[in-house]
Amino acid sequence: MGRPTASNAVDASRAVEVSVVLPAYNEENTIERTVETTLSALSSFLPDDAFEVIVAEDGCSDRTPELAEEMAAADPRVRHFHSDERLGRGGALEHAFEAAAGDVLVYFDTDLATDMRHLEELVERVRSGDCDVATGSRWMPENVADRPAKRGVPSRAYNVLVRLFLQSDLRDHQCGFKAFSREVFETLRDGVEDEHWFWDTEMLVRAQREGFEVGEFAVDWTPQSDTKVDLVRDVFGMGSQILRAWWQLSVRPRITRRVALVAGAVLTVAAMLLMTQYIDFGAVLSEVRQADMTFVAVATVIYILSWPVRGVRYRDILEELGYREKASFLTGAVFISQTGNLVFPARAGDLIRAYVVKARRGIPYPTGFASLAAERVFDLLTIAGMAGVVLVGYTVTGETAELAATLVGAEEAGLVAVVVATLVGLAAVVAVAVIALTARSDSNFAGSLVRRASSDSYAEYVAGVVERFAGDLQTVAGTRRGFARVGASSVVIWTLDVITAVVILAAFDPGLGVVELLAVGFFAVSVGNLAKVLPLSPGGVGLYEGAFTLLVMGLTDVGPSIAIGAAVLDHALKNVITIIGGYASMIGLNVSLTTAVEETRDVKDAPEGAAKLDD
């Protein structure tokens, strides 16, 4: 993105107190009249050398830049702030305020919907020190604006949501008629993430939370027909911003490690108590006792065989990143990290692996994190791909139609969950396919799709996350050889994982044919592992079993006792093998889980910070 540039720098001899910014995008028909009106209004109560008017021209494609440049050249009180590309309304305001000279920072919409006779009150409220932020309001009881229903109803709903979720005391957060003190702007600017329509709402909310005095006063406002707001895309985007800000300001600060552990324990206990009301655990235990131990032994061997393949895959990933290590050492590192994921919440084991390869082989933290991210991408691609293949198989064989007919006539809530899981699986297949296409080309397909849904900064954030996700895959899949080797080993790993579960299910003699058993096993294990992506419990305990059980019951005639028994035994077997291998590897490599967690706490989710530890 081109850097914004400003013309007509402030004369050092001018004692500019008030800076008025006019955010402009393709305003060639009105910008000259708007600037003239603004200059006239300011001159009515301020000396000519006490203010400046900045046209924050935001990547315009019409003659607005030329007109703004001409006005700036003709009048020293006018400045033109140009950006080669769209910054968004919030981005344009922020960059212009940064370059402004005044201690009172004002902006209003260039359509002049707000009556300019209110400008003096807006400025003087902040200039006099009466408040730190002043904002016009169209929804004050004594002066409610006459707005068309298609704009008034969404506006009222939006403001109600902001008041409810973000605990704001204001009635109108969107009125484009606001003033900030320089102190407020400098204090809040780094915390405000939005760069478009939500920017000023976020400024108002954060100002109240920081204890600044925010003054709201009624204004006369006349709706304009040429609004730049997209009532579908931008309203959707601002709704997502409310949720994002609510999470950041109200929820996330309260989620400490202790709270997460307690909440996870409470949810687990509650789930178990709830299950006792619908599940005969005596019958489940009876089924487990009757399971064929020969099948269980075979499943144990199969699952153990998957671990050396995990070490080989991790060796290939690191080799693509420029580091050569023995597969035996890396198998131990994987064992330790997966054990950490079973012991600690929020996948802290991933950090532990980065610590192990750093402490024992000198592989930098950034490389460790990149390798882990690439491994996760291949896991998700493989799991979702397997689920998709089974869905196609069910469709071809007609099983999908039979399942749908069953669901239409069913009343059990569990079968509804099967439908949801199926839709989630399909969505995952589409998502990872787009990500894979992005990783294998120069085009950002994934990011482009997200940006088409919304233009706000939260959508930009999501697009950035998806693109980094694809970038992690590109790191390893940049060559056909790397993609083939890591992809093939990923398929082997998860095929062995599925076969383990299939053999465990067969140990319960569920009465299924080989083809149906394999198909159901692949789908149930795939969806079960997708459920484990949510870091709600260590190792996904409970999430995997629940998803596995629902899928087996929904796709077959297997009863709940067998489905639950197979799910519990399958996950328990895998976790026991993981823990045994993990603690054996800890002894062999002299690694402590608690030490590893403490050492990596400061570098969690921050490769840049990790890089500092390498210095």
From TrEMBL:
The UniProt record lists the keyword Transmembrane helix: yes
CC terms in the record's Gene Ontology section: plasma membrane
Family statement drawn from the similarity comment of this UniProt entry: Belongs to the glycosyltransferase 2 family.
Bilayer-crossing regions: 259-279, 291-309, 377-396, 416-439, 486-508, 546-569, 575-597
GO MF annotation: an example: glycosyltransferase activity
Entry-linked PANTHER family: DOLICHYL-PHOSPHATE BETA-D-MANNOSYLTRANSFERASE, GLYCOSYL TRANSFERASE
Localisation: Cell membrane
Gene3D superfamilies the record matches: Spore Coat Polysaccharide Biosynthesis Protein SpsA, Chain A
Name of the molecule in the record: Flippase-like domain-containing protein
Alphabetical UniProt keywords: Cell membrane, Glycosyltransferase, Membrane, Transferase, Transmembrane, Transmembrane helix
Glycosyltransferase 2-like domain mapped to chain residues: 19-188
Taxonomic path: Archaea, Methanobacteriati, Methanobacteriota, Stenosarchaea group, Halobacteria
Topology relative to the membrane: Multi-pass membrane protein
